[in-house]
Amino acid sequence: xxxxxxxxxxxxxxxxxxDKAADRALDYYLKPKTTKAEADPGQLFTVINGVDxxxxxxxxxxxxxxxxxxxxDLAFDLEGSRRHIALGIQxxxxxxxxxxxxxxxxxxxxxxx
Length: 113
Description:
Elements: H1 16-30, H2 36-39, H3 53-75, H4 81-106
């Protein structure tokens, strides 16, 4: 039986096909794959998809509580109008925390496994 392919196969390292194949192999292993999240240089942080609402609200509530504590400490080191501004911001954080906690109470609890 006659085979139309060369025997042995063409493995000339100076051929263009060899260069293209080598470039594809190197690009596959060495070039980082960009994702949509990496394409936006202005976005430093992201929340992964698939996180349930209860976890998001719980983390939001804890973040607000931390901000409330930090601003409370800062406000008592200030005087005058700067202190009033800091206490006003602290009150907004406290109100937001209460809203987050109420939303967390309204979320159905996750089924236990």
